[in-house]
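Researcher: For the record, we're logging two predictions in this thread. I'll number them. Prediction 1 follows.
Model: Prediction 1, sequence and structure:
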Amino acid sequence: MKDTPIPIPITPWRYSILKPKPSPPERLFLVEPPHGCNYFPDRRASTLFVDPRYPKDRRLQTFLVENGFRRSGEHLYRPHCRNCRACVPVRIPVAEFQPRRSQRRVWRKNRDLTSRILSPKFRDEHFQLYYRYLDARHPEGGMANPTPAQYLDFLTADWVEAMFVEFRLGDRLLGVGVLDCLDNGLSAVYTFFDPDYPERSLGVYAILWSIHEARRVNLDWLYLGYWIETLPRMCYKNEYRPQERFWEGKWEKASF
């Protein structure tokens, strides 16, 4: 089945942002046909994609992320399920963030790590860590046994302004965080880390580092992707407070 193009109603000021030159397409979005849901086996899912032919840049990505979209590879997308609204975008106002006691412990525990920001390109050392991470943490998922091409297709895009952040213990690579740079914040795309160091809580540390970095460069938000209330593996996102959730077309402070 082919993706179905749909029109998007946009106000004049939004259209001035999105309008490409010299010949704008009539439609910006494509709807993926219903398919099995990755989170709920008994449900059908559908996704709204930005037309791959549409020119993309940081300004457009910022606007769309502010409206609940995410990036995967070259694609900007948002869940578009007919009878389900379980996937809720979340973001952290970095200036207001207050680490919890357990998060402060993680930060102190990893004081011996060094971080380095790199350009988004293939590095074999990163790929080998990514492969080990998926094999240990997600062996049954559709991402298992990736190829280098699949790795790049998932994490990078020709148009995006992204960075790969290394975390090292001496010379040993312990983790990599992939972040997109937006006009008003950072968007966490993916983090992978050495599964042999569970005591370091490297996933938590990567989020804390990203909050600190966004604050350091005077950005407003860290976007953490989608949160699903009933899914245990998403519960960790509740630990970063205060936070806002995108619901019914607007961002609202989350209550706990």
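Researcher: Logged. Prediction 2.
Model: Prediction 2, sequence and structure:
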Amino acid sequence: MAPAPGSALTLRLEVPSLKSLYIEMYFGDTLLSSGTAFLVANDQSSHCTLITNRHNVTGRHQETDECLDKKYCATPNNIKIYFHKHPLDLGEWHCVKLPLYNEDRSQRWIEHPRFGASTDVVALNLKWGNDVQKFPYYLKTDLDRAKLVVRPAEPISVIGFPFGLSSTGHFPIWATGFMAQELGIVTPDNPTFLIDCRTRQGQSGSPVIAYRANTFTYINDSGKVSTNMAPGVVKWEFLGIYSGRVNSESDLGRVWHVSAIEEVLTAAEAAISKPLGQRG
């Protein structure tokens, strides 16, 4: 049987499995932590940037500013990102090491243009070579924004690397939970929502999607809610970036909505032409 539309044909993987990237944060050559990142772009012809959580690159708790590394009490100054190599069917990865600070000690990451350090979302601009394959989430197309209707208690997936684990190689693990609130109450000034999912360390920075197979409910071209039964067809809606649990005793997790990522991407695009010291 032919792979369903939306599948990665060469490896018979679902496309979202190709989009989550394993990352490691280092101080010098000392590994401090691991996490997840992914690429975003508006469409196939526009600027592509790396997105992850701010606390991954700062090495500090987003709310308390406490150092997250308890072994060395160190914060990272470089990051390793594992990209897919060409050709994809080899199932190999190319590791890119990137400094987190410029020579003048200014940060290389780009923060939210309105909320700055209070938003747990950052971008890193890279110079792209031919030695990696890019699989971004496209924010302005229906490839990753299928206009799916996602209601409370419906399934969502957090696709990342809990405890640095992977399914094989550096392919991610899908953790599935449920929407814990109405998406309709997300606002531009409060672009977060809650999910109920058993997530763990290492999944910070993971993309959160609603993945549907065979049957899906969506907003049609007339702006009305419609349900489509299409055997063998998969659709997904990119919802945002997972940031962590609300506390250590809860399975409730916070997700920064895709609208916040859109603003960070815009800032990353604008930062390309700025002098190094002005890119934070």
